[in-house]
# Entry
Amino acid sequence: MMSTKAPRMSADERREAILQAATRAFARGGYHGTSTDAVAKEAGVSQPYVVRMFGTKLELFLEVFQRAVGGIREAFAAVVDDPAFDPASEDGRERMGQAYTELLQDHAFLQVMMHGFSAGGIDEIAAAARSCMGEVFATIRRTGWSDEEVRDFIAYGMLLNVMVSMRALEHLEPDDPLAPLTACAFGDAVELLESPA
# Structure
């Protein structure tokens, strides 16, 4: 019986596979609790290969973090750049909210973002977080909304982040004191987000 060899991955495909594995690993353990060895095991490659491809753990985390927050910026830009988008309408606001709700289905992305925002004690991560948040703010500002409206939109998104991160959606029992806030915050999106991705 002849065996067929699996197709060889290109360097770009290997890089992408490691970034996805790093996203899962950092989502579980955060920056401090994840080693390049853990990323390598998640990716099914050697630790020296991860280091050779990405450099230090910090460089790898920054790439994963910036990619996650960049996904938010890109999702909002896609809505804002749509010629049919009307930022003044209720539908326009709903479209911006829906773009973010869809991102929240990827719990690994969300956890990486939360870990990045909370690792401000590391200068490079704090600088990346400030830069990324500034880019998101500038993108949403392109709607023409006031700075206060953009602030409120981002603050609401951060509330959703925290609630998903602490798995509030898994505890919607009527006797849970957080259930009314969870239901109010997520509205119709509760069913969409209840099962982790």
